[in-house]
Amino acid sequence: GNTHVVLNGSFYYNEKNQPRIIRYDLSVERQVAFRDIPDLMANSSGHLYTTEHNSVDFSVDDNGLWLIYATAGSNNTLVAKLDAQNLDILYSWNISVNHRRVGEMFIVCGVLYAIDSVTERNTKIRLALDLYHGKLLDVNLAFTNPFRKTTTVGYNHRSKELYTWDKGNQLTYPIRYHEIGYNASSAEKADDLSAQLQTGVDVFHDSGSE
Question: Which pLDDT does position 181 carry in this prediction?
């Protein structure tokens, strides 16, 4: 797949066709930790997003290591905050947003963002969910896919940039921070998103699960 990440000298990836994530230490060149993720669908029926390339999507921000994935029997989006050393699940969220209706997702400063499309040249980021506070943020951000085939989006917390891979081209998008309010209520935001995502946006926070 193309959703693996490198963090603090370790390479994190999903074992092919298995509900298992692995940490590979690049300094000693060997696997040092692995974790089977409950309910992770590691086959084609569990692929994420409209592109359906991968079963999991690793993300890294200032808070550490995250995992976005799908589960059996549901189109909900699952997110786990991971211990970067032993891959324990520190927190998990079951979010009733249909991941099959968005092009890509990424996490910045504990906020989950969804890009409407990765094949349209001009698109939008209209979903932003503050995971720690369980609140929807009021956003309507322009996003571009210049070559109309973005296959991965990741955030570099050191350079404060988004990195994308768009039809063989690596692109960077500088991040400019603004005060983002909670102007829309959850009910109002759910009404606005329901036509696109076919679900509400209720968040179920399961602290300390494994």
Answer: 47
Report the distance separating Cα 133 and Cα 136, nearest Å: 9
Sketch out the chain's domains with CATH numbers.
Answer: 5-174 (2.40.128.630)
pLDDT over 90 at 111, yes or no: yes
pLDDT band at 145 (very low <50, low <70, confident <90, very high): very high
Contacts of 107 (CB under 8 A, 6+ apart): 59, 61, 66, 68, 79, 113, 131, 155
> For the residues of the chain, what is the DSSP string, one character each?
----EEETTEEEEEPTTSSEEEEEETTTTEEEEEEEPTTB--SGGG--TTT---SEEEEEETTEEEEEE-BTT---EEEEEE-TTT--EEEEEEE---GGGSSEEEEETTEEEEES-SSSSEEEEEEEEETTTTEE----EEEE-TTS-EEEEEEETTTTEEEEEETTEEEEEE---------S-HHHHHHHHHHHHSS---EEEEET--
pLDDT of residue 205: 43
CA-based radius of gyration for the chain: 16
